[in-house]
Amino acid sequence: MHLHILGTRGEIPKSAPRHRFHSGVLINGKVMLDLGERTFLRFKPLAIFITHLHPDHAAFVREPFAIRIPTYAPELGRYPFLRIAHAITIDTHKVRPLPTHHSSKVGSYAYLVEHLGKKILYTGDIVWMDAKYRKQVGKLDCVITEASYLREGGLVRKDKRGKLYGHAGIPNLVRMFKPHTKRIILTHFGSWFFKDIEKSRRALAALAKKHKVEIIVGYDGMTLSV
What we know:
Blueprint: E1 2-7, E2 24-27, E3 31-33, E4 47-49, E5 71-73, E6 82-84, E7 88-90, E8 93-99, E9 109-115, E10 118-122, H1 131-137, E11 142-147, E12 155-158, E13 164-167, H2 170-177, E14 183-189, H3 191-195, H4 197-211, E15 214-217, E16 223-225
Parallel strand pairs: 3-4, 4-5, 5-6, 10-11, 11-14, 14-15
Antiparallel strand pairs: 1-2, 1-16, 2-3, 7-8, 8-9, 9-10, 12-13
């Protein structure tokens, strides 16, 4: 499975040349996960899967435009071209949405993608994934997840109904996903990462060593195979 990381910047100002673009991942040139930039449409995937309707993951939220490629999301919002995400096969790629916790205002999904015996999970922004959905994931070749916060606990709050929302810390995400994989690819970096990139890389290397996993620092344009 060929992965092309299109964008790795969270909802923060641009500050580093290799992290200019918002979220997006292209799998085998056919399945796109998130559309953080309108320019990603130039890759002409067969289908697009949006994790949630925030503008750094769905560029049309910030600047409305129509999409002629089949585009799936957890909800339709006010966008008539969207379709509700469901388990579907795109070419030879099986894509399955799994509910996650992230926002108090919009729904969110992670996407499990299977292709020729390989499996990856792409989470988008996330606080938590319920155990009943993690059980459906099984063993993975890699997880692609967010890096908004390095600190333990991230930034998580409760709304009036007691529902959690925000972003988990990277240590929390590593603990959640290491039973499923030994390879974690980070995207959607928060401002902490750019204050001192080399120091941030060392902190992530130490975290990887502690948990005996491989943590890969994604960047715009990165390609790799799993």
